[in-house]
Prior knowledge:
Helix content: 40-55%
Low-confidence stretches: 1-11, 216-259
Distance between the termini: 43 Å
Shape: globular
Mean pLDDT: 78
Largest sheet: 4 strands, antiparallel
Number of helices: 9
Number of strands: 8
Strand order of the largest sheet: 5-6-8-7
Radius of gyration: 19 Å
Amino acid sequence: MTPDEGQNKPPPFGSPEWQQISRESFKKHKATPTISTDAYFAIKSGDLGAAMSRKKLLYLDTCHWVNLRHVILKSPLERPGYREILDLLEDLQQQQKICCPISFFMVDEVMKQNDSATRRNTAMLMDRFSEGVCFQFPTDIRQFELRKFLVTRLKGTNASYLAGSVWTKYGFFAGEFLPHISLLSNEDNRLIQKAWIDEMWISRFRGHTGKANANGLGYRSLDASIRGCKRRCGYIQISQTKLRCSAPRRKGAVVSYPC
């Protein structure tokens, strides 16, 4: 990967590759209208969890990502040992033996970097070794842990998979939100939501590093962004059980936020 890889690529939603994937996704889901959004998301999450269970997981602090970036950019700030670490990571990844997942807090820290090239190259490195795999949003992790505790107490450790997964993809790093347009039918919303899942599944960090401020992403700006989306089209948030406490309205396993 060269330092400038991805520098001149069009925005993710505007790229020809993205548009082609979107067309294929809509075509696929039009052919399977009986599969619910929850069921489709469960399939994607289950496949991801199974893939992660076959790999060694390496959790790198942001400082290590920065030091690896110095190697990539051939920076005078390069520290001893990190070139060898990078070579080892590349070798293990090519063998599909490892994954270095990222998280909301990592994204938040990177977005505090003032220089756009620095943000982009750090994000590219994270994309490279995480393959888009991300921890659930912090509050969702706490709810997952509670679900897992209750499920294993009631059903035993062999049923822990019923609690869901701690893993998601970068497109959902700030929570598993899906669009819901009240003017459309349930069938049309289901089609859009399943296509949205596909698009978020292939989304990568490097495509969203163009804007930042001194506070990074921050919870306040994140909340403002979510409120703006809700005003425009409404949102629903995936919840694999009925354990959510702050839902304004429930629909089975789905928490609905109307316009």
